[in-house]
Amino acid sequence: MKKIGIASDHGGFELKEYLRKELADSVEIIDFGTKDESSVDYPLVIAEACQKVLSKEVEGLIALCGTGIGASIAANRHKGIRAALCHDEFTAEMSRRHNNANVLVLGGRVLGKELAIRVAQKWLNTSFEAGRHERRVGQLDTIV
Ligand code: RB5
């Protein structure tokens, strides 16, 4: 079973809780917070969770905030993180096949629960194609 982290600020909390429960049968989910709806700063929560990806404690991360925008900006500040803000199954699939995204970002105030589950499942069940994409993904970490 894949070991995947999940993290959100208060804006993504409700959807995080839903996904955490719904995905528990198919992946091992490690919850990196936040633990309730109290206001927290997304750069801090997301930074801490991204470190768990970089240290390989988890294979990937589902990160949420209200829109997904702050969480994706925050996650992509960390070298080695490839965070993709996805609103549909197609972008979730391509973020794995072409970009080898190791963080899926969702907007808790944007996506309905059923769509969010489908997007997350597509992301979890799609592999990196490598080939020509390997070189391009490598360039992300070497060209500053
Ligand atoms: C919190 O109100 C909200 O600003 C945050 O969740 C996120 O949407 C930021 O990008």
Quick summary:
Helices cover 43% and strands 17% of the residues.
Strand order in space, largest sheet? 2-1-3-5-4
Look at the structure and give the CATH class.
Answer: Alpha Beta
- What ligands can be seen in this structure? D-ribose
Which spans of ≥5 residues are poorly predicted at pLDDT below 50? none
Strand content: 15-25%
Task: Give a quick set of tags describing it.
144 residues, alpha/beta, Ribose 5-phosphate Isomerase B, Chain: A, 5-stranded parallel β-sheet, 6 helices, 17% strand, binds D-ribose
What does this structure look like?
This protein is an alpha/beta fold. Helix content is 43%, strand content 17%. Helix 1 links the parallel strand 1 and strand 2 (28-31). It starts with a strand and ends with a helix. The mean pLDDT is 97. D-ribose binds at residues 9, 11, 42, 65-67, 69-70. D-ribulose 5-phosphate binds at residues 9-10, 66-70, 99, 109, 132, 136. It is an enzyme of class 5 (isomerase). One of its GO terms (biological process) is carbohydrate metabolic process. Belongs to the LacAB/RpiB family.
Q: Any chance you could write out the topology, listing elements then pairs?
A:
Blueprint: E1 3-8, H1 13-22, E2 28-31, H2 42-54, E3 60-65, H3 69-75, E4 83-85, H4 89-97, E5 103-107, H5 113-124, H6 132-142
Parallel strand pairs: 1-2, 1-3, 3-5, 4-5
The structure holds D-ribose.
